[in-house]
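cron nightly-structures :: item 1 of 1
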Amino acid sequence: MRLVDRHIINRTHQYWACCDELAFKSKNLYNLANYYCRQHFFKFSKSLDLTKLYHATKDSDAYRALPTKVSKQIIKCLVATWRGYFQAIIEWSKHPGKFLGKPKIPKYKDKTKGRNVVIYSKESVYKSPLKNGICHLSMSEIMHTCSCGYCHRSEDSTCDCLLYN
């Protein structure tokens, strides 16, 4: 069984600014990684694999602005987006009637208004507060009480505490 502790963060919430900043930093990394993917695509007409993309971005400020595990999740999501694009192109070439037009390559997110998903896995949460039922996201001010009852029971808990904005 997998439990999820869900917290809705709206504009009046105390953590809104922090969540917004994390989503903005995530967008910056997404756009940087997407730049490398697009350039590789224009040059070789192929996808850039996860390992090469990781090595291309790992020393950047955008990558280091977030915890390493979070940055890796953002890059994994972008690679999945590109994989979906290539699958859509293959499907479009076989059955163009299923589509409204030819699939387009993944675009950049808006420079100022754009935000991207921030995925905190279990490894990206501070462990010592978690034993006391407090979920503290690494490299952020965000701390919340986990009400699922599983976080503090064991190291191998099956709880996924999520924050939404």
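cron nightly-structures :: done
Residues 131 and 154 are 7 Å apart (CA to CA).
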